[in-house]
Amino acid sequence: xxxxxxxxxxESIVVLRQEGTNSIGIAMWxxxxxCGKELVVPEIPIVGNRVKNCGCRKPDPAKYCxxxxxxxxxxxxxxxxxxxxxCMYKYYGGRGITICARWLESFxxxxxxxxxxxxxxxxxxxxxxxxxxxxxxxxxxxxxNNRNKRNNRMIEYQGKTQCLADWADELGVDYKKLHRRxxxxxxxxxxxxxxxxxxxxPNP
Length: 204
Fold this sequence. Notes:
Blueprint: E1 9-10, E2 13-21, E3 27-33, E4 38-42, H1 43-47, H2 61-82, H3 101-105, H4 107-114, E5 121-125, E6 137-141, H5 142-148, E7 154-157, E8 160-163, H6 164-171, H7 175-183, H8 189-193
């Protein structure tokens, strides 16, 4: 039996009247959004609170990505600190890196403290020997984060010593490409820092 929804409000829409049924017998309702636009909606999405407006209040894509990115960072943070079977657990939870109770309790608490994750940023602990909690965490670019890793390899070349990320910045080359040359292709430091195009063979 169809429920009488006339004049009922669901978020930003108010039901005006029934507009018959659809092909499978579901009642259709004419609704008006607070913005003034009218739309016809099946009964089930309305009573299930899945129709909140006519579409005029779609989230800003950039903001949505920032929220989604923050949630993904929160999920990954929890996993590597609390799940012994996680591939990165030995570097985090396994060596005593913990998460404050407030952030463990809910994503909302984490989001209230950290805000949206900017594009191409990661969560970073300012003191890498301490845990995840407000005051020790920030959003930082992946390149900058690579500079802060406790297992950073310092590279000496032509009398100068710095981490790989700094060499990449100084030479104007991609960090990941430089990393592959050293780790996967087993190039020497001199060959890798020469920053040759990928199609060119390294110097003998």
